[in-house]
Amino acid sequence: MKREDALQTVKKIVIKVGTRLLTYETGKLNLGIMERLVREISDLKNQGRDVVLVSSGSMGAGMGRLGLKRKPVSVQERQAIAAVGQGLLIQFYEKMFAEYGHTVAQILLTREDMNNRTRYINSRNTLLHLLKFNAIPVVNENDTISTEEIEFGDNDRLSALVAALIDADLLLVLTDIDGLYTANPKTDPEARCIGFVDEITPEIRKVAGKTEEMLAKGGMTTKIEAAEIAMASGVDMVIANGNQPGIIRKILDGEPTGTYFCSRQGPLRSRKSWIAFGQKIKGTIEIDSGAARALTQEGKSLLPIGIIDIKGSFSRGETVSIRDAKGMEIARGLTNYSAKELSQIKGCKSSEIRKLLGYSNHQEVVHRDNLVLC
């Protein structure tokens, strides 16, 4: 299907807007940009489309309200700033969307909401019911209590996980540049915008680059990571310049603007998507060529006999990365044994597990139903 045909049939959309769009360098909110985006999103709702807004800006809004010039280093201070900013941010969204007759709902998520299967399902149900009630969920990381999210989190990855969570048709990432470039357009006059991507290759990762801007947590690298999640989950994604008036309409009309990431055929089912991307990787299992072939070509489970080495500290039921002897990740899955247990049974036959451990809960280290190929 052509890009214009695919985008014109989009029904369920996740729109992510970043700090660089929503705030000035002073840290205060850019109300002009916010009002325009609210109007464009309201127009989507009027067309009968479902929209989830993943919005950054709480840290910048809090800095502006408190009169701070630079982001503090202390985690506790940053949590407090986010608490002030989040209330300010949702207040503006509530007021602006109400002018167009639409209702918003605030959803604050943490990494644990994705890691825990029950909370993952509850989050999905809440979002889907809000869409059923014709509300516009406004999603953000709960930076006021989650130290890890403030230190390493970003809303690019969150938006992709939300898109996978609700089975969205499109993830639209609005930023302050036109899309993914072949080089840094600010320093290289020969740089050109890449219009179409159907696979995240090492070359794509290489040109992504990083950002060191004061207010923004993510850069193009995190957007490529988000694209990888979205594409594997059956969600198309577009990176585009949110400063362009009417940018959302242009994209949905199929105009060749921004960078379009075409999703794979046959998206991961919800549980598989949760295993692959919702869970945090707690360790690594290195396997031999025979085990790698059994997983990738024969669709079998991982048995202890094929394990070469164990890295990291993990417990039963946690997610591990499964890599071949060359270090290439070939799968992720939920392990039936801890790292300590696997160090005792690696390389042995399944029939020997009871003799080595004194018990045998499973014949498989990772069952194929709990395993996702990369």
Mean pLDDT metric: 87
> CATH architecture of the largest domain, please?
3-Layer(aba) Sandwich
Task: Provide the gyration radius in Å.
Answer: 22 Å
* Straight-line distance between termini: 24 Å
Class derived from helix and strand content? alpha/beta
Annotated CATH homologous superfamily of the largest domain: Acetylglutamate kinase-like
Report the CATH C-level class of the largest domain: Alpha Beta
Q: Tell me the β content.
A: 15-25%
Using the alpha-carbon principal axes, give the shape: globular
Number of helices: 16
Helix fraction by DSSP (H/I, runs of at least 4)? 40-55%
The total number of structural domains is: 2
Name the poorly predicted regions. Answer: 210-216
CATH fold label of the largest domain: Carbamate kinase
Order of helices and strands: HEHHEHHEHHEHHEEHHEHEHEHEEEHHE
Describe the sheet with the most strands: 8 strands, mixed
| Widest beta sheet: strand line-up | 3-4-2-1-5-7-8-6
User: Strand tally, please?
Assistant: 13
Polypeptide structure, described:
The protein is of the alpha/beta class and 374 residues long. The chain has 2 domains: 270 residues, Acetylglutamate kinase-like (Carbamate kinase); 94 residues, PUA domain (Archaeosine Trna-guanine Transglycosylase, Chain: A, domain 4, Roll), CATH 2.30.130. It is built from 16 helices and 13 strands. The strands form 2 sheets. Strands 3-4-2-1-5-7-8-6 form an 8-stranded mixed beta sheet, sandwiched between helices. A hairpin with a 5-residue loop joins β11 and β12. α4 packs across α5 and α9 packs parallel to α11. The chain starts with a helix and ends with a strand. About 2% of the residues have low confidence.
